[in-house]
Design a protein that fits this description.
This protein is α/β, with parallel strands linked by helices. The chain is 39% helix and 16% strand.
């Protein structure tokens, strides 16, 4: 039996009407893991918000549950998104659950095989385009307009609404907001969502530390391989309001953090998820501070990348 659906637990804080159908795969309620060895090494109280435990293996499921539920309520014929992989897998799975078609537009050769396999398994239609994520996004907007489908990228406000529930869970699990919140920075939707969630709860914000790859357009961390973050303005606002800052990390730092999470804490995540830990090396947290690293996706999303751990 599945636990209470995320949308029901936080219904009063979400844009749901009495007639909204609840499309769920059991998302949310993910573990918060105390990183004992890394806490001792770094001199902080480090926790890992393990979003790889969501149904399709990433944090995207929180927002997709809301976006697809609202699309179904609004009578959409289908959903469409551009994706570096995790949005693709989530959109396809939740669309299948809702009985809707899902079209996934992606930059050719830029999506990890595990995520492509997830889309194919649940019947999503893949459309490859030459170019970058930004080219794929432009193509998805054209397709949505032409076919009358609902866009379920994080530009859809219902996605952000669903993802903000992770902030609610963190406060429930810790008893208060952490001092520092570090998370991978691709398009910026997740930072935007956490900021909204903590703001709605009231109290002080944690210091936001969105961590991006120095090689944004060509990083091994394919899930954050986005050259132009669509949510840059809201990320900058969250960082400014919280007293945090954006951190850029090199490729070897991401791989080293990825290896460390796996071998010292037993957490096998995809490379992009490790960016949050890599960012801590730049002195963003003081001794004894409580820090949460958001671990956004499971390692099985990108199994071919394991060769980098050798």
């Amino acid at each position: 039996m599945m636990r209470e659906p995320l949308l029901e637990r936080y219904r009063d804080a979400l844009p749901l009407s009495p007639s909204t159908p609840i499309v769920t795969l059991g998302e949310g309620g993910t573990p918060l893991i105390r990183a004992e060895r890394l806490s001792a090494k770094l001199g902080i109280e480090l926790w890992l918000k393990w979003e790889g435990a969501n149904p399709t293996g990433s944090f995207k499921d929180r927002g997709m549950a809301v976006a697809v539920s609202k699309a179904l309520e609004d009578g959409a014929r289908g959903v469409v998104c551009a994706s570096t992989g995790n949005t693709a897998a989530s959109a396809a799975a939740y669309a299948a659950r809702a009985g809707l078609e899902a079209v996934i537009v992606h930059a050719a050769g830029a999506v990890a095989a595990g995520k492509v396999g997830q889309v194919r398994a649940v019947g999503g239609r893949l459309v490859a385009v030459d170019g970058t994520f930004e080219d794929a996004f432009a193509a998805s907007l054209e397709l949505a307009e032409r076919e009358g489908y609902t866009i379920v990228n994080s530009t859809n406000p219902n996605r952000i609404e669903g993802q903000k529930t992770a902030a609610f869970e963190l406060v429930e699990q810790l008893g208060s907001a952490p001092d520092v919140l570090a998370l991978p920075y691709g398009g910026g939707g997740n930072t935007t969502a956490y900021a909204r969630g903590f703001t709605e709860l009231g109290g002080e914000l944690p210091r936001f530390v969105p961590v991006e790859a120095e090689q944004r357009g060509d990083t091994v961390a394919s899930a954050i391989r986005i050259g132009e973050p669509v949510h840059r303005a809201t990320v900058d606002d969250a960082v400014a309001r919280s007293g945090g800052h954006v951190v850029s990390v090199a490729e070897d730092a991401i791989v080293d953090a990825w290896r460390t999470l796996a071998r010292e804490e037993g957490v096998f995540c995809e490379p992009a998820s490790a960016a949050s830990l890599a960012g801590l090396a730049q002195g963003v947290a003081g001794l004894g501070e409580r820090v949460v690293c958001v671990i956004t996706g499971h390692g099985l999303k990108d199994p071919a990348a394991v060769d980098l751990l050798a």
